[in-house]
Amino acid sequence: MPDSAVPLVIPREAHPISRRNISPAALKVLYGLRDAGYQSFLVGGAVRDLLAGRQPKDFDVATNATPEQVREVFRNCRLIGRRFRLAHVVFGREIIEVATFRANDDDGSGGRAAEDDGRLLRDNVYGTIEEDAVRRDFTANALYYAIEDFSVRDYVGGFEDVMARRLRLIGDPETRYREDPVRMLRAVRLAAKLGFSIDLGSSAPIPAMAPLIAGAAPARLFDESLKLFLAGHAEASFLGLETHALLPVLLPETAEALRTNRSGSLRTMVLEGLRNTDRRIAEDRPVTPAFLYAVLLWPAYCRELARLQAQGLDPVVAQQRAADRVTLHQAQRIALPRRFSLPMQEIWMLQPRFSLRQKKRVFRTLAHPRFRAAFDFLELRARVAPELGADLQFWREAQLQGPAAVLHGHDDPESKGLAVAGMEAGEASPEGEGDAPARRRRRRRPRRGGGSTGGGAPGAPDA
Ligand code: ATP
Ligand code: MG
User: Does residue 224 line the site of ligand 1, with CB under 6 A?
Assistant: First the structure.
């Protein structure tokens, strides 16, 4: 395989890559480098995607020009990276990344996010195109489209693998996973994204080597998690992580909660949430890491909450503590930034409020900045917990018709407890929320108002 410096050359008429599917910006860079006398190739995921019949989301270029030489060719060029210098050629919002052929490998993250990795990075050694090919991860990612003759150059058997829709690591799989354990996640992600299989030789070592991922930088794992779950193939990614025993290393507490959840409804809920995420992305609707992680960590949260409540902790205290603990533990593996973990927790904390119908609370809940996301989350829970249907109906109408309309006849002094989706009977769940003054008012109101505060009740909402 990598012993030969002579590539398999697939001529234009034998492959489907057309310049029509390459962005004009990428073509400018490819031609610009060629006209300046350098070799220039489209490389990596873009070639793979084009061969697989998909439109690439970005285009990377490989060349024998050094970054400084690339900058001399393009005025709209800036150099990035300290150790691994890369050239970015900027066309409005599109950036074409131009990398000089490199020998050896760093930790495999392309020198982009790895500087704070804490791991030793090798020096930036420029190399030949074949050295550049064999340092890549999968054969499908190591194909070069040459702008000079529109052929595809294959040093590692990648063309055949893409045609067979198969991911295969270059070289010895165990060695390559040890060099960079994140490649295990990349295998699952790319298989999910492309609908490719993972070659048996590359998939077999994964379960045993999965624990090595714990040594990867949490920030890098956060980035990788977004690529797994917020790129339109979240459900397939999750199933792949399960299949290859990677879930326990990425989301340890969720994996454990799913394992011990007898009915399986927590898993159903997570899969439902991920399908929903995929649907939103397909429809070009916004998705947020906060909501995604609210879904992914909900089983862990429910489990921790049940544990704390079984110890007799006040439900309100238990909720916040469960949320904090789950967030803290998960952060040791995946660096979920606070701007996402805080709204994630708010989504969870709002769930018990949906069973509270007292007028002031209804207005307050509706006015909460996280109401919409929390309501979407309630909708998700209701898919596996039909008993939440009445709550769902109430809050749907509260949004559509305004709270005053739905509050009529709803001023029930007894708030219902929160049935945490998927928890078995006996696994305690939270009830009410922690707001003592409001609770006191709630008990007085029905007596005074004769059971109805709906319609033209004079009190202005404290929204
Ligand atoms: P995507 O379509 O999701 O961007 P990609 O294959 O382009 O997939 P990138 O992370 O953009 O993924 O990486 C670009 C290229 O760099 C890859 O195609 C591969 O050749 C190489 N590469 C990326 N990560 C690694 C790694 N961990 N080890 C070795 N090579 C890698
Ligand atoms: Mg890419």
Answer: no
